[in-house]
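Need a sequence for this fold. Nothing fancy.
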């Protein structure tokens, strides 16, 4: 089968809307972290997040769509429409049976769930607002997006925790390689809701002030939210319409630590497997990889294990590593999709965005962190790394168009 290309990207983020605004902010090292305004945090002990502010659903959808969609679905539709426009796909170009929609998330319309839960706990079953029940469900996300474009191919939700974006992108690419679709709208979306926010705080995983990936004095993650959608196309589709691809999707690796519900395996077993699978299934060796966009949550266990994995896979080879969670926070199910945009833009520009707030190197994290200031590098191949609760490990390879051997990504 032919190659799979990224031809368009769309982003809703705490740093701005659209891939160009988002990328410019990342390169400049701007922070999207601010005080939470979506709910009262006074009793939680934490108050910061990468909250999306200034988003107006009606800027991206009509009144009927806006009524049907919750905040999460609205983010997804907006990012998908930006991606389609970026790819030059207008009107009915994505309608029909040859367009698939594959979206990752953790909780989907979590705010709707929170409202339903509050009513049920405090007032009982009869208090549940029946009009809101049909608005909850992770399965609705790709359905809303498909409906927005008239896409009649497969729809799929992958609730693979904080690795959901990479799972969705890899699976969508598979559908194209298998001939089940010509085009796929894929990515991931997540919103901040009080229940999950308080849950992370109770776990002791959240920093009180800033996210410091790989730093010796890191204090934990800061939550974020947003949506990132990519248009993937078959080689035939790209040729037929004369599209200019932004990047090629290579192979990917999936594994499970099978160790602990929140902590990664101390030896990084699953992550090592996933990273090696991504490299080998792309027809590459470790010497071909130019950059790693890390999961880098700034939690003590995650960062030290991820650094260990990189050293085990790449040995003494020096390779630039960055974590953009330092700027946008940990966007949960949307994380690796948000980071995939950065991967593709690095391939486009030869610039690696910084890991901000990096102050003190940690001997337990012996990786080459792109610290505080963006760096220019010759980058042809990027790995996008994701580690998630439950032991999910997912790594996707992106490359400059034509850089990978033909057949990359095929089993």
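Here you go.
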């Amino acid at each position: 089968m032919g190659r799979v290309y990224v031809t368009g990207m769309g982003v809703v983020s705490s740093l701005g809307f659209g891939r160009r605004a988002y990328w410019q902010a990342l390169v400049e090292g701007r922070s999207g972290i601010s005080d939470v305004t979506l709910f009262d945090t006074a009793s939680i002990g934490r108050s910061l997040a990468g909250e999306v502010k200034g988003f107006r659903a009606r800027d991206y959808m009509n009144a009927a769509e806006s009524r049907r969609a919750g905040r999460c679905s609205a983010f997804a539709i907006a990012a998908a429409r930006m991606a389609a426009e970026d790819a030059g796909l207008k009107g009915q170009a994505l309608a029909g049976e040859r367009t698939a929609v594959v979206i990752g998330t953790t909780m989907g319309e979590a705010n709707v769930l929170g409202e339903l839960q509050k009513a049920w706990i405090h007032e009982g079953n009869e208090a549940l607002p029946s009009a809101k029940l049909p608005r909850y469900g992770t399965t609705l996300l790709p359905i809303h997006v498909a409906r927005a474009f008239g896409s009649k191919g497969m729809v799929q939700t992958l609730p693979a925790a904080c690795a959901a974006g990479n799972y969705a992108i890899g699976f969508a690419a598979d559908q194209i390689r298998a001939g089940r679709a010509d085009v796929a709208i894929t990515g991931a979306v997540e919103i901040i809701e009080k229940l999950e926010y308080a849950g992370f705080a109770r776990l002791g995983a959240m920093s009180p002030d800033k996210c410091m990936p790989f730093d010796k004095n890191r204090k934990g993650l800061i939550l974020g939210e947003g949506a990132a959608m990519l248009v993937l196309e078959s080689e035939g589709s790209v040729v037929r319409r004369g599209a200019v691809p932004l990047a090629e999707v290579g192979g990917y690796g999936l594994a499970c630590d099978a160790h602990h519900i929140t902590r990664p395996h101390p030896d990084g077993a699953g992550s090592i497997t996933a990273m090696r699978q991504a490299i080998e299934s792309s027809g590459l060796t470790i010497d071909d990889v130019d950059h790693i966009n890390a999961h880098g949550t700034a939690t003590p266990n995650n960062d030290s294990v991820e650094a260990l994995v990189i050293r085990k896979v790449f040995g003494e080879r020096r390779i630039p590593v960055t974590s953009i969670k330092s700027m946008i926070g940990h966007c949960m199910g949307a994380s690796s999709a948000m980071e995939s945009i950065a991967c593709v833009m690095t391939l486009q520009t030869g610039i690696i965005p910084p890991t901000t707030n990096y102050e003190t190197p940690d001997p337990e994290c012996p990786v080459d962190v792109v610290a505080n200031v963006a760096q220019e590098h010759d980058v042809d191949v990027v790995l996008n790394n994701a580690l998630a609760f439950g032991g999910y490990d997912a790594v996707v390879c992106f490359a400059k168009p034509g850089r990978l051997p033909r057949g990359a990504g095929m089993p």
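For context: DSSP finds twelve helices and 16 strands in the chain.
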